[in-house]
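EI: anyone free to look at a 198-residue chain?
SC: sure, send it
EI:
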Amino acid sequence: LSLKFGDVGNLKGLVIRFLLTTSYYQLSVQNWFSLHRLQLLYNHSIQATFNATRIYAPASYSYHCEHVSSLQRYDALLIPSSANDLSKLWEVTFTDFQIQGFNIQEGHFAYAKDCASFFSPAILMGLVMSLILLLVLAYALHMLIHLKSLDRHYECKASPAYFAQGKDNDIGDEKEPLRSSVNESYELRNQQFCKIYI
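SC: here you go
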């Protein structure tokens, strides 16, 4: 597949050539096409050649990518084929790149297989944060399940309290003489104490 631009500045007869191949894969039971090589031609000779990596799609689909470039910041899908030629002097970047080499119908691209990975850095960070929150929640539930409740058992028993007879006899209704002796003692009938077991 050749894109011919003609004369651009000092470049005479600029052509960008895409070499596409198609193969049949038994696992997917269909044909796939891939971009094998990219060539830059001007002045009627090949000036730079780049090997393409990870640019493929089913033959009935097209391939789409936001950036196809030889630069590392765009993931460098185009790699100079040799250190001896002029490829390293070129920086090639296609923006909103879409290509389809086979089974083109009515001059329109078919459904596109996008180059975006299912595990982009943002998605991975979201998965990691979700895992951390899940672990915190599991730990909190574990602590709640094993939390011991405070079982309080109250046991109230009537206990006599003995007081020596004093000068005040105001609580005569609540006192009952225990024995007749010189030092009289009295019992408070409604005095109670409680034991709390925890």
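EI: The chain has one helix and 14 strands.
SC: 👍
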